[in-house]
Amino acid sequence: MGIGLSRRDNVFDSKSSITVHGREYHILDAIGQGGEATVYRCQDKKGSQHAVKMFCFSRYPPVQIRQRVDGFMKEARILQYLSGRSPHFVDFVDFEYRPKENIGYMIMELGRGNLRQFLQGMPLNEPLRRMIWQQIVNILVALESARIVHADIKPENLILVDNTLKITDLSLAFPSTAMGQAFRQPMIRGTLDYMAPEVFLHETSLESDIWSAGVILYEMTYGRPPYFGIFDRHQKMDAIARMTPISYPPLNDHYLFDLIQQCLTLDATLGVYLSMTDGLHYPRLAVFASIITTTIFICFILSALLTQKRIYLYLKGLLGTDTSMMLLLSLMSLFRQLQPIFECKYKNKKVNLYLDLSIVCDYILYDTELIVE
């Protein structure tokens, strides 16, 4: 059973087969070429098709091989760790490194195309954009829950499997310990159009992934990335690093416009977590919640001053229930049992809006009790 490598760049021909831990896979065709690996479509003896990512380390200078192998092992272990934790992570089958041949294999779930195939320089229609964005948000939430920073989110790394968007290519990924914590990176790595400004300071975090997702949303909306018009690589790097103002052509959908701007900021957490609640229309939810809460507060205070005792008691019970719910959500958020949808940062400090609203409600209850008495 030959490996069947050609002399040019050590690629497989279509008649090759490989074995990974004793299991044979027949190579069908090449489906992708990256900077460090080539991806092939393969088939096992049961007829199931997979993707095999092949790394040929012998093409690197001897002093770099150990580092490249370590990167291969890190990516394989992260893929193995994520597999099965979310429907938006690719199913990982197996991996093997062969030191005698200086070759590494990763066997994983096969996609039926990637997001780049949908983005052909034209904006996506609203239903498709909404569906894709919601799944991207789900991916961000799953990565945050797993404490993994991807560091290279782009359309080419988002594949479709039975209408489910899945994240792949974790060659730059690394474990993270806390939301908002940035990690120093020795090298600036990533895909330029989708890199966050802080990456050029050698700092990468979940917020960097949110920025990359925001670039994709911008591209789905306008048909191009934000700095697409800058063709010189160094000028583009400088524009992103310096946070050169992004051009936002007018949109009829003000909620979408607001969300894109929220993502493409240095502190993008609030916009994306709010968007979890209502697709692309998270500001509508925030406005409605604000109006309803304000109305309850005003009615409650007026009832304490002007109305009968029983109406006051009814509204007191309503506000008390709201207070209890917000306090419960705050505690669940603190203990990581609920995604902190209403959590943001102010002056580098986390602000839990559930808890703040709960405290405000408690104060109004206490103050109004004094007024009634």
UniProtKB/TrEMBL annotation:
Record's keyword terms, sorted: ATP-binding, Kinase, Membrane, Nucleotide-binding, Serine/threonine-protein kinase, Transferase, Transmembrane, Transmembrane helix
Gene Ontology BP terms: chromosome segregation; meiotic spindle assembly checkpoint signaling; mitotic spindle assembly checkpoint signaling; protein localization to kinetochore
GO molecular function: ATP binding; protein serine/threonine kinase activity; protein serine/threonine/tyrosine kinase activity
UniProt-listed Pfam families: Pkinase
Protein kinase domain sequence ranges: 25-285
Domain of life: Eukaryota
Gene3D superfamilies the record matches: Phosphorylase Kinase, domain 1 (3.30.200.20), Transferase(Phosphotransferase) domain 1 (1.10.510.10)
SMART domains xref list: S_TKc
One Gene Ontology CC term in the entry: kinetochore
Name recorded for this polypeptide: Protein kinase domain-containing protein
